Amino acid sequence: MNLPNLNQAKIRTNKKPATINAKNIKSTKYQGKKFFLKTYGCQMNVHDSEEIKRILINLGFNETTNYEDADLIALNTCAIRENAHDKVFGFLGRVKHLKKAKPDLIVCVGGCMSELDSVANTLKEKYPFVDIVFGTHNINDLGRLILEHEDKQEIEVYSNEGDIYENIEYERDSKYSAWVNIMYGCDKFCTYCIVPYTRGKQRSRKMADILKEIEELKQAGYQEVTMLGQNVNAYGKDLAENYDFATLLENVAKIGIPRIRFVTSHPWDFTDEMIDIIAKYENIMPYIHLPLQSGSSKILRLMGRRYTKEEYLTLFHKIKERIPNVSITTDIIVGFPNETDEDFNETLDVVNTCQFDGAFTFIYSPREGTPAAKIKDTIPMNIKEERLQKLNKVINDYSLMHNQEYLGKTVKVLVTGPSEKGENMVCGYTETMKLVNIKNACEDIGKIIDVKITDAKSFSLDGEKEIFINN
Ligand code: SAH
Ligand code: SF4
Ligand code: F3S
Q: What does the pLDDT read at residue 66?
């Protein structure tokens, strides 16, 4: 048994991460058995789940979307806010009953929640029916843990700085759009955030390894890659090599894959060179997710964000000026400890100035072990909720305003799959990352097509495939 330790998780040394060749264990032990995998959290977790799926398939399992049918249930969890915990423990309550009826069921819990001392201890004491608990640093070992698993609970979670795995096999969710990790971990330690503790230190993959992976995805017919990292634009800062995110972006663009995206950019690491490269290459999509968090410089300082309101605005305007047609979305936290009405109004001011294309908004959630969780907070929850509602209203109005600018226009859409909006409809994304539901394009999944926009809502567009008639 190896339990996590948050005090250890925050230590940063000069030790270079090791590059480890992924194991990719194959076995027929679970041939004919089914697994159910549920993923919470960010794109990083979604991509980790593609690794978990491949590990399970390599042991003989097939996927089921009904957990009651499963022989193995795996949860890939998120620790970013308390409500993420509630969902996981709620689901585990249902699994407990299932396990009574089906004692051979294997239950695995991994992801960021497993990295927390409190969660690992709760699983140990109150959820003994969970068979395997693994963390973010040893996903690649899941195959071995399952094969070696006996009747007793096995907790194997590490709180080290982490290494870099290469040659990981993935069962990718899409044949057209792929996630590519360019780095792991985070060294920013924003005072409210648990990620640097759950994901270890910033570790950039070598550029050659990333380029090789993207080259192979292009050969396999992928139309789009999204480069992933908690701070993609801090890429390379931890390497001795003389390259950075701008260099990487340019080299990826030259591979010629039709669409390149990246998340998440930190305002502090955004250089002019990056802006120039994004503007220069047509296959780098004009879409940037640029978390603001707060519009008050006082709160930003308490959050440890390393920029002021003015610096954010300067960067925002520079990006808007230099990249034609760019769309910018953001993340905002309301109710950081002792945020006053004035602080919140400053956030609204920035939102009104930037008129973001969209935003993810959250009420601050104290995370045990982070510096902000120690601050005594005097703002009642109902005030925080009111602020969130007020903010969301403004955010949604701007999203709708931007979406309405598309009415009657023809735009390029990468069709990713069937739409939830109706039979015979598919959906996809514009270059600027707007979701479009499309009529008359069922044969076009996986293609980039011209779509005429016929309707605009706050969170999506409707459109029809544009058919050009040659005469
Ligand atoms: N690495 C990214 C985002 C990571 S988490 C970045 O730095 O932008 C995604 C978002 O969750 C954050 O941008 C933040 O807005 C929100 N978040 C993180 N910790 C939070 C907390 N303790 N309470 C509420 N929201 C939080
Ligand atoms: Fe969290 Fe800040 Fe790192 Fe983003 S940059 S993952 S918010 S610590
Ligand atoms: Fe959640 Fe971990 Fe991502 S805490 S947001 S799954 S890095």
A: 97
Q: Which atom of ligand 1 is nearest to the CA of 231?
A: 1
Q: What is the largest CA-CA distance in the chain?
A: 74
Q: Are residues 106 and 201 in the same domain?
A: no
Nearest atom in ligand 2 to the alpha carbon of residue 186 is 3
pLDDT above 80 for 471: no
Looking up residue 209, the CATH number of its domain turns out to be 3.80.30.20
Q: Determine the atom of ligand 2 nearest the C-alpha atom of 230.
A: 6
Helix (H) or strand (E) holding 397: helix 381-404
The DSSP element (H or E) to which 224 belongs, if any, is: strand 224-228
Among 230, 195, 192, which residue's Cα sits nearest to residue 333? 192
Location of structure tokens 């109005």:
397
- Give the residue numbers spanning the domain of 21: 6-156
CB 291 less than 6 A from any atom of ligand 1? yes
Cα angle: 294, vertex 297, 299; to 5 degrees: 60
Q: What is the mean pLDDT of residues 125-142?
A: 98
> Ligand 1 mean position to 365 CA, how many Å?
10
Give distance in angstroms: CA of 457 to centre of ligand 1: 26
What secondary structure letter does DSSP report for 131? -
Cβ atoms < 10 Å from Cβ of 255: 14
- Minimum CA distance residue for ligand 1 atom 8: 291
How many Å separate Cα 226 from the centre of its chain?
Answer: 10
Mean pLDDT in residue range 440-469: 93
For residue 181, what are the β-bridge partners? Answer: 228
Same-domain status, 118 and 180? no
For strand 461-465 and strand 448-456, is the pairing parallel, antiparallel, or unpaired?
Answer: antiparallel
Judged against a pLDDT cut of 70, whether residue 26 lies above it is answered with yes
Tens of pLDDT along 88-124? 999 999 999 999 999 999 999 999 999 999 999 999 9
Whether the full predicted model's pTM is greater than 0.85, yes or no, is yes
Decide which of 404, 425, 455 is a domain's last residue: 404
Contact, 202 vs 234, CB < 8 A?
yes
Q: Which ligand is nearest the CA of 361, by number?
A: 1
The mean pLDDT of 397-406, rounded to a whole number, is 98
In this predicted structure, the answer to whether residue 308 has a pLDDT above a threshold of 70 is yes
Looking at the fold, whether 324 and 187 belong to one and the same domain comes out as yes
Residues 428, 370, single domain; the answer is: no
Residue 461 resides in a domain: yes
Q: Amino acid letter at 182?
A: I
